[in-house]
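Predict the holo structure. Ligand: FE2/S2 (inorganic) cluster.
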Amino acid sequence: MFRKLHEPEAGALTIDIDGVPAMAEPGESVAAVLLRQAEPWSRLTPVSQSKRAPYCMMGVCFDCLADVDGIASVQTCLRPVCDGMRVARQIGKRTIGS
Amino acid sequence: MSRLDLLIVGAGPAGMAAALAARRHGLEVMVIDDQPTPGGQIWRSVEQAARRDDILGPSYVEGRAVAEAFRASGVIYQPGAQLWQLEPGFRAFVSRNRQAQVIEAKAVILATGAQERPVPFPGWTLPGVLTVGAAQILLKNAGQIPAGPVWIAGSGPLPLLYAVQLLRAGGQVAGYLDTTPAGQWRAALRHLPRALCASGDLAKGLSWAAMLRRKAPVIRGVIEIEALGDGRIETLRYRTADRATATVEANTLLVHEGVVPNIHAALSLDCTVAWDPAQDCYAPIVDRWGESSQVDLFVAGDGAGIAGAKAAQLRGELATLRVAVKLGSTSEDAAAVAARPIRRKLDRELAVRPFLDALFRPRPQVFAPADKTIVCRCEEITAGEIRALASVGRPGPNQIKAATRAGMGPCQGRQCGYTVTRIVGAAQNRPPAEVGFFHIRPPLKPVTLGELAALHQPAAP
Ligand code: FES
């Protein structure tokens, strides 16, 4: 859906999205990386199981929620990537408190 | 941590300017911000993106020096921090790195900026539909653009600016659907002389529009849009005021109908707000220093009414001046003298607003989505459901919320609040100013049990 304007420079890192390795650059958000994937969505809604993808990129829509390193419902547009991070698209009910 | 002189919420233009001024007055000041780096949305990732300066332009690059000065100022800066509760006095409950903490301060400046106005239409929840602001943030933060030709639908300076930045970056615009209502320039015209004397920005806007027309189809007078697709947008349907409809292939659609102040924190403290008919939104009522109806609580920048980044910096400085007086680090007289040139510059910045507000007033359809449109993205409540309830008895937004769950999801009504207000108003023939907004109660952002468990009293580190 989106593409990077430049080749990743030195310092490129890898994150894991549902078992698929994805290239990322320091400083960018997890949501930005998600939007470059063949499956650019982040969560399924609890009510109708519809796909949602990052929409606002500024923390006000909560459609970018995903599981990051075992923590559910992380706003991925506010979370910078780090090497080895494990991201899982969030299916169904949002859990708070894990 | 001991009680701070000043807590600033937000590290955008207003927050950084307020913090720099506070350091000049020797105040002990902390800035918390939910972003990982300073700059707010306008200067998002400005410290890291030097290679994109040519694409993003000089008003973006300006932010780098401000961020540098901010870092060097000695302010206590907590990035990646979410404010979820603010109590009078003040006690701020903040989560950061999965730990909740309590921060105490004598004065607070809310510099929480703006968000894009929610634009509900059928299909706006489909992946591939984003706001123009989101796309611009992706350009600033990650150096990325839509992979194929993109449709842009909306009104205002931001979609024009983004279209130009995208073209400079080598991206393609499939089409630009201008939703600015046709006759609106007439209403704007009477504000033009004042705007012209004050600002060079209008000429910039005209040059953007000219560049766009050379490079992409521009369709004017678009009143309705609809996104269709299975799991992501595949087609886009639009209708113009002269009733022409078109269906086109689309894999990305960016929308924008102006911005509105972020007022959730102010609302949660029961700051008095007023409906601004020119900007179609609520804004906290503040005095000429930015102090709200709550003593020692200030609102600076776009959070107090949309006026742009330059005005935000000036309003941040004014708020800090007043805080400095109240805390005894400068005199009333000295502050009055210092405020004079700031207010002169601020007047110049504000002079262009009436023109922009009148010209880019959102089309009425933004506030009256079709029945099948999802209004509350979190709980998936449609306009039809809200409308049906709104016409039985005279429920206000809070009763609608209780009955439908609209506004109860994690975004706390940030995406549906204004639409609920407008649908209720239309159904009951009441102006939005009378209908009001959702009551906003903490937590302002979802907070986990784990974070709460880590909560210590202020004496803890
Ligand atoms: S994309 Fe909207 S909150 Fe993250």
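The radius of gyration of chain B is 22 Å. Chain B touches chain A through 52 residues (CB under 8 Å).
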